[in-house]
Amino acid sequence: MIKQLDPADVWLTREGPHSTIPEDEFFDAVETGLDKIEEDRQLRVRLKYQSQQSQISTVSSLHSPNAETEDEIPQLSEDFGTGAQAKSHKLWPEIDRICTEQLTQARQGVGEDGNGWQLFADEGEMKMYRREEEVDGMVIDPLKSCHVVKGVTAREMCHYFFDPAYRNDWETTLEDVQIVDNVAPDTLVFLQTYKRIWPASQRDALFWSHMRRITDNLDAGANDVWIVCNHSNQNEEYPPANQGKCVRIYLTVILVCQTYLPPGKDSKTATRDDLTCKITYCSTVNPGGWAPATVLRAIYKKEYPKFLKRFTGYVVDQCKAKPIMY
C-alpha cells in the first residue's frame, strides 16, 4: 500500500520524474486497472451478445433466413484499398512510403542474422517477439507477432481493425475516438484518447490509418493480402501534443493479413471452414511520459498476447454467420 500523504504531496504518487511510488506498486496498480477494464469489457460483450441474439430472433421470425445478412456486407467502391482517392492529399507521400517500409519489415523473418528478436510469448499458433530499445530512457521496444486464425479472410481481419465503428468492442483501454481528417474511405486520421489508469497519466494518440490491398504477388500461395498501417502524425492542422491532460503516444503499427485456401478451392467455392488467415502484427510505440522501463516491459509482456487473442477472437465471432468478404 502507498503511504498516506499530505494533500499537497499527492502529485508524488502519480507518474512523473519525482514520483515516489516504488516500481512494483506502480505495476500492481496499473495491472489492477487493466484487469478492471477487461472485466467491464467482458460484461459489455455479454450484454451486447444477448441483445443481438434477441434482435436476431425477432428478425428471423419476420423475414427469410438470408434477409438480415445481406446488408451486413460493407458496400465499398471498387478502388477501396488502392489509395486512389487519397493520392491527392498532402499526407499521401508519407503514407505510401511508411506503408511500403513497414510491409517490407513485416515480411522479414525473426531470429535471423542476429537481429535481436527475443521470443516472449508462445501460445499455439501465436508467437510474439520483441527487441529491447530505448530512446532517452523511454522504452520503445519493437514488437512482432505471428498468428494463424481459421474461418476469416485477410480483408475481414483488416476491416475490423481499420473501421472505427468496431474499435470500442476490442480495444479495451479506448475512451474516445475522433476522425479529425476523413482523407478517403480507406484512409483516415484519428485522435484517440485512452482511459486513465492510475497512477499513470492519461494518454492520447494522433495518427493516420490506411487500409490497402497488396498486389505485388510476393506472398507465395496467398489468395489475397491486405494491410492496415497506422503512423503518428504531427500535422499543424491537427490537435497539438501535450497541451492538456493527456500525454501523447507516438506509434507505428502494421497489420499484415494473408488469406490461404486449400488446393482446389477458390474465392467462389470456399466456405468459412476452408479459410486460413495468416497474421503478422508489428508495432513500435513510444508511450511518452515517465513510466518506469521495467513496469512498461512487464505490462507489454502480459497485455500484448491478450490483445491479439482478444482482437482475432472478436473478428472470428463477428464473421462466422456472415457472407465471406474478400
Tell me briefly what this model is.
This protein is of the alpha+beta class.
How does this model look, in words?
It is globular and about 60 Å long. Strands 1, 2, 5, 6, 7, 8, 9, 10 and 11 form a nine-stranded mixed beta sheet that branches. The chain has a two-stranded antiparallel sheet with strand order 3-4. A hairpin with a 2-residue loop joins strand 1 (118-123) and strand 2 (126-130). The model is unreliable at 1-13 and 59-71 (pLDDT under 50). It has helices spanning 23-62, 67-70, 92-107, 154-162, 167-170, 293-319; strands at 118-123, 126-130, 134-135, 138-139, 143-150, 174-184, 187-194, 203-214, 224-232, 247-260, 276-286. 31% of the residues lie in helices and 27% in strands. The chain has two domains: 24-57; 83-320, 2-Layer Sandwich (Alpha-D-Glucose-1,6-Bisphosphate, Chain A, domain 4). It contains six helices and eleven strands. It has 326 residues and is α+β, with helices and mostly antiparallel strands.
CATH topology of the largest domain: Alpha-D-Glucose-1,6-Bisphosphate, Chain A, domain 4
CATH level-two architecture of the largest domain? 2-Layer Sandwich
Judging from the principal axes of the Cα atoms, what is the shape? globular
Write down the CATH class of the largest domain. Answer: Alpha Beta
Q: Helical percent range?
A: 25-40%
Give the domain tally: 2
The rounded Rg comes to 21 Å
User: Quick one: how many beta strands?
Assistant: 11
Give the CATH H-level superfamily of the largest domain. Answer: START domain
State the major sheet. Answer: 9 strands, mixed
Can you tell me the residue ranges where pLDDT is under 50 for at least 5 consecutive residues? 1-13, 59-71
Q: Strand percentage, roughly?
A: 25-35%
Q: What average pLDDT do the residues reach?
A: 84
Structural class: alpha+beta
* Separation, N- and C-terminal Cα atoms: 53 Å
H and E order:
HHHEEEEEHHEEEEEEH
Please tally the helical runs, counting DSSP H or I stretches of 4 or more residues: 6
InterPro entries: STARD11_START, START-like_dom_sf, START_lipid-bd_dom, START_lipid_transfer
Domain START: 113-311
Pfam families: START
Subcellular location: Cytoplasm
